[in-house]
Every structure is written in C-alpha cells, then in structure tokens.
Write a structure and sequence with these properties.
heterodimer, A: alpha+beta, five-stranded antiparallel sheet, 20 helices, 17 strands, elongated, B: mainly alpha, two-stranded antiparallel ribbon, globular
Chain lengths: ~500, ~500
C-alpha cells in the first residue's frame, strides 16, 4: 500500500501547490484590479480614514471639503454650496464618482504619484495623510449668477461660461440639478435611499446638461456657416448676398422660409451679409449651405470643436455633431442649425470664444492647479490652443455681425441683450431658436452664444434652454445675468 | 518522494534490534520519542498565539487586550495538558502534529476574538451580528473540549487495530449521524439563511454530526476495505481495460457511499458530500492500489457535479458565481466577492491584525475565515497557514507509510487525505479556484463540532504514528555475536 500512499502524498502536494499558486494570483497579481472594482467597500472606506482634499473656486471659495464625523469615525464630504456647484464638484460615493471628484480623485485622495514624497514624509513625521487641494477655474460670482438664472428660468437647461483668452471655465450650471450632500452621508442605508431617489427621478437631476446633453443649435450655427462662406467663398460682412423671402430647395416641395415668413432686409432679394446675420435670415444661410460643400461645412464645424468624442475639461464632454451632408436640401437645413446638428451648451460657448479670441479656440479646462497639503503647487494647467477655426480678419467680421445682433434695432437680441438690458455692456451674440419634435410640434429650444465686452472680450457664454421658445427671450437673459455678474466682479 | 519519508524515519518495526545496534555503531540514529522537541515547539506556539492576540488589541484600539494573561495561561495550560497526555499515552508519537494543530487552534481563537471585537471598543466598523460578545469564550470552551477529546481518544484507543473490531458498529453510527439532520424538522436542523440541513440545534446548543460521521466512516471504510481488499483487487472482470470487482464485494461500500451522498444531497451540503466521496475514492485506491479507482471516481464526481448543477438551483448558483462573481456582486455572489475584496485588500503583507475590514464579508467567522487571515496577515499569512496544513497532511501520510498494520495504514492515509481535501475544498472555494461549497476550515472556523472532531483526527494520527515509531520489545538476553569456530 506504500506505493499508493506515496501517490496520495503526490496528489495532496499538487492540491496544495494549486492553492498556493491561486492565492498568489489573487493576493499578488489580482489585488490592484480587485481594489479598483467599482463597489469595493474596503477601498472606499479606507479612503474615508483620512482627509480628502478640498475643491475651491478661483477666488478661493471652498465648494467641497472633508470633515471628521465622530459618530462614524470617518471623514465625511461636505458641499457648502449644495446644488450650486453640483455639476462641477460631482459627488464621491462607494459606487460611483462624478465631476472633479472623479477626474481628480487621485489628487484629492492623495494616491497620485506626485504626492508620494509628501505621504512618505507624513508617514515618518507621524502626520496624518491628507489629500491635495484642487483649485478650479470657476468664478463664484459667475457661477452664482448662472445657477440662479437657470433656477429662475426653471426649464431644463445648461450653461457654460468661458474665458475666451485662456479657455478657463468660469461657470457651468445645469438645471434640474441635485444636492451632492445627499450622496455624502456615511449612513449606508440613507445613502442608498437617496441614490435610488435621484436615479429614479424622471427629471434626471444627475445629468450635467452643460456638457453631457446635446441640443439642436438652431440659428446659432450661422456663426459657423458665415465663417465657412467667408473662408471658402471669400465674402465679408458687406458682401451682397441672395436673400429671397422663400428659398426653393432641390427635391423638396416645401420651400425654406424665414422666421414667421418675413422678408429678409428690404425684400429686394439681395442684402449685405451683416443684415442677414442680425436678422437671422434662414433663406440667406440656407442658400449659402446649398453653395458650400458638405466637406467645407464639416471641416469648419470640426475646427470649432464639433465631432470630437475625446474632449475632456477634464470632465468628459459629450460630442457635438455635424455629419457630412451630401444632399443639398439637407445641407441647407444643416447650415441653419437644423437636421442632425447637435451641440452641447459648452460647444455654444466655444463658438463665441473662438470668435472673441481672434479666431483661436482655446481648449476649455476647469482645473487651474493642484496644491499639496503643505501648499506647494503640484501642477498648474497651461492654457493651450485647441484649433484656429478662423483667421483674425474673419473673426473681426463675425464679431461686427454679432455686435449688430444686440446693437441694431432690427437685431434678434436687441431687446434682451442690448445696452439697456446689460447696463451699458456691449455684447456680441447670436441667437438660435431650434425647431423641435416631430413636424416641429414641440416647443422650440432657445439657444444663445455670446461674448462680452465686444471690444475686449473677457467672457464667452453658451446657453441652451430646452423648450424655452425664442433664443432671445429665454436664453439671452441668462447669459446677460452671468456677464453682468462676472464683469462686475472682475471689472470691465 | 523524499518529501514523505526520509531515510532516517524509515526503518521501523522489523529491523528494530539491528537498527539499534547499528545506531550504537555510529550508523542510523536511534529513533526517539522527541517529546522535548514537541515541548519546545509548543512553547513557541504559545508565544506566537499570544503575540497575535496582543497584536489584535493594539490594532483595534491601541491597547493590549484585557485578560491577555488569563487567555495566555489557559491556552498554555491546554496545550500543556495535551503534551503531558502525549508523554504518558503516546510517547513515541510524531512530535510535529500536536504543535501544528495547537498553532492553528490558537490562531483560530485569536481571529475569532478579532472578528467578535469588530466595531466594539472604539474600532470604527460594523458589528458582526452573527457573533456575540461571548463567541470567543465559547471557542475557548470548545478548544478545551477538543483537547479533552484528543486525550480521550489517546487513552481509549491504545492500539489502532482495536478500532477494526468496531468496523460495522462505527459504520452504522456514522450513517445515523449523517442521516439524523435530514430526518429532523427544519427548525432543528437547518442553518438559518442557507439550504443546509446539517445541524442539530437544541436549546441554543448546536452540533454538526457530519463532523463526527467523517471519522466513523473513515474507520468503517478502512476496516471494510482491509478485509476485502484482496477480492476487490483480484477477483472480478476486466471491462474496457478497467478491473471491475464483483458486485457482491462492492455492494456494501457502494451502498454506504450512495446513502451518504443521497443524505447529503437532501441536506443540501455539497462540500461535505464532495469530502466523503473523495475520502471513499482515495481509500479505495490505497486499499487496492488500482489507479482506475481514482479515474472512475473523478469522472463520477464531475458527472455528479454537472447533474447536481442542473437539478438544484443553489448548486447552479455556485457555478455561476465561480465563473462570473462580479456579475452577482449584490446577489448570490456577494459573499464570494467580499471575500475576494478582503484577500485583495490584504495584498502580500496584509493590513495587520485588527486593521482590515473582514466584517464586510458575511459569515466570515466560519466558512470564510481564511479570507480574514488573508486580509489581515496577507498572502504571507495564508501561505504560512497552508504550509501548516500541508505539514499535518505530510506527517499523517508518513505515519501511514511507517506503520505496518494495513488497517492503520489505510486509516492514517484516509484521515490525512481528509485534511488535505477539506482544506482544498474550502480554501479553493473562497479563493475561486473551484466553485464554493460550504465546509469548515479545520481548527480555524468558529464552532465546536469541527474543532472537536479535528482534535480527534489528530489524536488518531498520533496514535498511529506512535504505534509506527514505538521500538520493538528489547530482546531479553543479548546472545552476543555469532562466533565462527574454525575446526582444525
């Protein structure tokens, strides 16, 4: 029987070797992927054992910080401004993270390699590990104005304000929104209940409409169409363009008409481009769409930031779409922002921002710098140029046309964003009223893209209000409120 | 296979007198009882366990736990009693088995204390609701009972062969113990929150009879197979290249095995079912030396597992969780995934005793206790524990090889392999090497039955190794060297 016993010993040996190899795999090789598994409570709660870094605005207002909760013996996250900064901070829970809490998690939690030396020193000196502070580019005055304006408006909407010279995001608001404090509770049951309530809310309060929802751009797309025509057809703001009251489209029975079927300009059939722009004549820009190629329009749109699935600010931005239109009738519609064109409010702000910065589109960003607990700066974001959509000459031409939208008595935003409404600030803008629903049965989406002051641009704003009606009525006042608050805070 | 038997341990029994003389002549050393080695290692064990116990208190709330000395002294007293009993009852027994078992038992108590203290005494975390403030005290009590059972087995079984007389008695007792929970009402026998009908719970006192059935059936298999091994191995027909024994020789064993399997399926305990089956097949192999048994057994087992997974939803769930645990994070895979998170959280060196979060894993104190060790002592700790088990198995098999009596050989081989298989099934299950089947981790898991039966198993192995290593009686008279007388 000894032979069989030795065999059994060999079998036992193999079984133990299998166990040993397997635990080596699980605890040695798989450990980090297990730690990163979403919903790993151990990883998350171990991050609650020390103080997570704060998130602050560019004017040093704290919008997220951690404080010891004695009852739980863990650090709890607090968002002092609640809903106002929710699209920016996001939230930080066991099962998911969003916003800056997600994208800057390594810095905030102190696990970033840049913090390794600090952590080591803390370990040696017995100090508790602490996360780094993330300073955003947000201006609290602009953000407060943006949040309040959207709240007052009450409709589903998103808005982004940029510094056109750097690309820094000055404000970003979304409505409806949520209070991240609800998701910061350390009580698991309470957290689950709050989470379920937010997830099941049909208004989708967790959705960031400023960068993650797209809307039809409507006439605000005429900024792109004008730029394309100026670049590819060599026209300028004073060029006389074909401006019929009705534009026949090839292969389609229904002609393209202007808003309410009005005539463009004096009705003579030809107007300067600037007149068509300030009045937002569909027939003129539809005709430009017919004469431009799909490639020309798409190339211009891409330069403005369309069709980019990889944009991060560092929050991931949903792609704004401008497909290649080969059918002339569809291209005419696309040239006035209909058909399959879609934009995020951020994309709207980028349109104005590029024009305001003499044709150079700066890459939007929200994190200005990261500061270690000992106040040394770990990283600073350097503004970078994303693209050059138009030449400075074209930018000047488009700027002149956008100024007329608010300053000319016939301009579509003369009442809502003119000197009286802004208290003397000259805004350069373009309105959009996107038709919506099947056979345009839905309420129009109100779109507004603008920058100010027109002579020395400091802020560019993009707003979309879903079902807001005309862009000038619903969206423009929101932009005006943000511009006034911001320029009031930083000075003209 | 030098792992199993090094030459120095080989010559036992027959060549005793010659070996002794050789030893004196500077050849092979005299086999010794090595009780002093055992005592030294036991002192080391007490030291390690006390160190771990202090570590738990420091990890949990920065203080040496109260009652450190009481626990230390009682543990030292317990292993002391066991050691004295071995000196008296089995002086030639293997010196490693007792320290190894005592170390596992001691570390098990420490871990149960650590888990019981989760969330108590200032450590943030969650109280394990399935444990009370008295769980550790009970575990110490069970350990005392375990040592008592250990001493009792050594005292009553003076010769392993005497057990052979009770082959059928023990077989019947084993069957009854196995079947009892199945026929009792669910309120008495069902483990709450599971499908397992494996215990007898009366007045807050719970026994898992299968733990003792395991020992009884090992004796039964050994006794029966020894009596029948020649007919099993030789008589019979050869079918498809495999030697099949006659049905009438095989009948009783097949019935015993079938009954145990059926009963276990009715009790919903797949792990124990696998354990019994494995034990049976391996003992059959040792007895007949025919590897065809291993192949048949393995194939039969695979077939049974597939059929069971089709027939029983809770068996199928185990397969699903094994293959895709993260698809069932919040449902049937919760416990497995939490166990894996614990292992990963521990990493290579572990979080340190008292500093992990094992309380996140449901029922971590029983089936999943190895993940608590993995979390707090790391890969290093788990490998050390596995090697301790491996050494127990190896010492058991060495005793089996060294002993001459075939019944003892078979019994020791079966018991040693039971330990290996049980560790493989439960540790492999929680580390996702194989599908999880609930079964206790010998010496570590919370609970009395498993602990007591494990101590009895060690006692049997030590009794067999004592028999193997015991020197033959001295010749009464030394006749001296044979002298050659030359004539002429």
């Amino acid at each position: 029987m000894n032979h069989a016993l030795r065999r059994v010993a060999l079998i036992s040996l193999v079984m133990f070797v299998l166990l040993l190899v397997n635990v080596n795999y699980v605890q040695g090789f798989e450990a980090s992927s297990l730690a990163n598994e979403p919903g790993n409570g151990r990883t998350f709660t171990s991050t609650l054992q020390f103080q997570r870094g704060s998130i602050i605005t560019s004017d040093q207002k704290v919008i997220a910080y951690s404080k010891m909760n004695k009852a739980f013996g863990e650090y709890q996250r607090h968002y002092p401004e609640g809903k106002m900064y929710a699209p920016i901070t996001g939230y930080d829970t066991l099962f998911s993270q969003t916003g800056i809490e997600q994208t800057e998690n390594k810095e905030l939690s102190g696990s970033d390699p840049a913090l390794a030396v600090h952590n080591l020193i803390d370990l040696i000196t017995g100090k508790q590990k602490k996360g780094a502070t993330v300073e955003t580019t947000i201006n609290s005055a602009a953000q407060e104005a943006a949040y309040n304006a959207l709240k007052q408006q009450g409709k589903e909407a998103g808005v982004v304000a940029l510094n056109p010279k750097t690309g820094a995001v000055l404000a970003m608001a979304s409505n409806p929104t949520f209070d991240p404090n609800q998701l910061a509770t350390l009580d698991g049951k309470q957290l689950n209940a709050n989470d379920q309530k937010l997830l099941k809310n049909p208004n989708q309060p967790l959705l960031n409409r400023a960068i993650n929802v797209t809307f039809p751009p409507g006439s605000s797309f005429k900024v792109v169409t004008s730029s394309t025509a100026m670049a590819d057809k060599g026209i300028n703001q004073n060029t006389s363009v074909f401006a019929p009251t009705q534009l026949k489209l090839p292969g389609v029975t229904q002609p393209l008409i202007n808003f309410d079927g009005e005539a463009c300009g004096d009705g003579s059939g030809h107007v300067p481009l600037i007149q068509a722009f300030l009045q937002s004549c569909n027939t003129v820009f539809g005709n430009l769409g017919l004469r431009l190629t799909g490639q020309q329009l798409q190339r211009q749109a891409n330069l403005f930031g369309f069709n980019n699935p990889k944009l991060t600010i560092p929050l991931p931005v949903t792609q704004s779409n401008f497909p290649l239109y080969t059918d002339p009738a569809m291209r005419a519609g696309a040239a006035i922002g209909q058909e399959s064109d879609t934009v995020t409010p951020l994309q709207e702000a980028m349109l104005a921002s590029a024009i305001a910065n003499q044709g150079a589109l700066m890459k939007p960003y929200m994190v200005d710098k990261v500061t270690a607990p000992d106040l040394t700066t770990l990283s600073t974001t350097q503004p970078t140029v994303l693209s050059h959509p138009v030449s400075p000459a074209i930018a000047t031409n488009v700027t002149d046309m956008m100024i007329q939208v608010t300053q000319n008595s016939q301009g579509t935003a003369h009442i809502s964003a003119g000197l009286q409404a802004t208290g003397g600030i000259v805004i350069a803008a373009k309105t959009g009223t996107a038709q919506n629903g099947i056979n345009n049965s839905g309420l129009d989406d109100a779109v507004f893209t603008c920058f100010a002051p027109a002579s020395n641009p400091k802020i560019a704003v993009g707003v979309v209000v879903k079902g807001g009606g005309q862009g000038a009525d619903a969206a423009a006042p929101i932009a005006v409120a943000i511009i006034k608050a911001y320029l009031n805070a930083v000075g003209q | 296979m030098s792992v199993i038997a090094s030459p120095s341990d080989q010559p036992l029994g027959g060549g005793r007198a010659a070996a002794e003389q050789n030893g004196q002549a500077g050849g092979m050393p005299l086999p010794q009882g090595r009780r002093r080695t055992e005592l030294l290692m036991l002192a080391f064990v007490v030291g390690v366990v006390m160190f771990a116990y202090a570590n738990v208190g420091l990890g949990l709330n920065g203080k040496i736990p109260a009652g450190m000395f009481v626990y230390g002294l009682s543990f030292a007293a317990l292993v002391g009693v066991a050691h004295v009993a071995v000196r008296w009852l089995a002086p030639w027994a293997d010196p490693l088995l007792l320290p190894l078992a005592a170390l596992l038992n001691g570390l098990g108590i420490v871990m149960i204390y650590r888990l019981q203290e989760s969330g108590r005494g200032g450590n943030p975390g969650f109280v394990i609701t399935t444990m009370s403030g008295k769980t550790t005290a009970f575990q110490v009590l069970y350990s005392t009972a375990g040592i008592a059972a250990f001493v009792a087995v050594l005292a009553f079984v003076r010769q392993p062969r005497t057990l052979q007389r009770y082959t059928y008695t023990l077989g019947a007792i084993g069957m009854v113990l196995l079947a009892l929970p199945a026929v009792l009402p669910n309120s008495i026998s069902e483990v709450s929150g599971t499908f397992a009908k494996i215990q007898i719970s009366v007045g807050g006192f719970t026994v898992q009879p299968e733990e003792f059935a395991k020992l009884c059936l090992a004796v039964f298999f050994a006794g029966y197979l020894v009596a029948k091994r020649d007919v099993l191995a030789l008589a019979g027909r050869r079918v498809l290249g495999i030697d099949l024994p006659r049905a009438r020789d095989l009948g009783p064993v097949l019935i015993a095995w079938g009954v145990s399997l059926v009963v276990l399926i009715f009790e919903g305990d797949i792990g124990t079912s696998a354990l019994f089956f494995g034990l049976f097949v391996v003992m059959m192999y040792i007895a007949t030396q025919r590897s065809s048994w291993l192949i048949i057994g393995f194939l039969l087992f695979l077939f049974g597992a597939v059929v069971a997974s089709e027939l029983f939803a809770h068996v199928k769930d185990r397969f699903l969780v094994w293959l895709h645990p993260f698809n069932y994070v919040h449902t049937i895979g919760f416990q497995t995934v939490q166990g894996l998170y614990g292992l990963g959280f521990g990493g290579v060196l572990g979080r340190g005793l008292g500093q992990g979060q094992p309380y996140n894993t449901p029922l971590v104190q029983s089936d999943f206790i190895i993940t608590a060790f993995g979390e707090e002592l790391g890969l290093t700790g788990v490998m050390a524990l596995l090697l301790i088990y491996g050494l127990i198995v190896q010492r058991g098999l060495r005793a089996a090889i060294a002993v001459r009596d075939p019944f003892s050989k078979l019994l020791a081989g079966g018991l040693a392999f039971t330990v290996a298989l049980q560790v493989f099934v439960i540790v492999g299950g929680v580390t996702r090497l194989i599908p999880l089947t609930g079964i206790t981790t010998p010496f570590l898991s919370q609970g009395g039955s498993s602990l007591i039966s494990s101590w009895m198993l060690i006692a049997l192995l030590m009794r067999i190794s004592d028999t193997a290593r015991r020197p033959a009686p001295q010749p009464i008279q030394d006749e001296g060297m044979t002298q050659v007388v030359r004539a002429g």
